[in-house]
Amino acid sequence: MAMSFFAQFASPSYLGIPLIAIAIALPWVMYPTPSTRWINNRLITIQGWLINRFTNQLMLPLNVGGHKWALLFASLMIFLITINMLGLLPYTFTPTTQLSLNMGFAVPLWLATVLIGMRNQPTVALGHLLPEGTPVPLIPVLIIIETISLFIRPLALGVRLTANLTAGHLLIQLIATAVFVLLPMLPTVAIMTATVLFLLTLLEVAVAMIQAYVFVLLLSLYLQENV
User: Which stretches are transmembrane (predicted)?
Assistant: First the structure.
């Protein structure tokens, strides 16, 4: 039973070919391409308005040098939200439940922010490792602690996204299994459990969007420290 619960997180394959590439590439096919006309349809207009609002909100605390990342952050946000939302559909696979994929996003982007800080303002970047006014005996210890916390950042990014989505999917499957088991024996309890399942599904929709936003927001905060 335990293995069947975690089987949903295994990467699917067909004839020995992993299908995770299709699951990653599928979201980009679902979005309409903006046209060159002055007047677009409602879907493209709403899509552009949402992207503009998100980008403006995300780039607000950054200076002009950080605005170069606007396209990357907006694309990553749309990609993560779409992947997370599609993973809530029945008989689908959520690539962002794989820690390797999330770390593949987190580590290069975090490393890019650190390298930008070391190139543009090395004194300020290294100054984050030692808070101002630190007593002299505590300087070596604090440098070690701040260095460790700096290198834990990408791990926290990847694990946070993976853990939240994995826990939500497991909880939905556990409650859905309970509904099917209780339905023949205790229909009233099964209906109450199904109501909880419906509310939990709505919560997971919110979690899918919030976790994508938190992932990109933390990356923008890391970039803010280094530009």
Answer: 12-31, 69-89, 101-118, 138-159, 171-199, 205-223
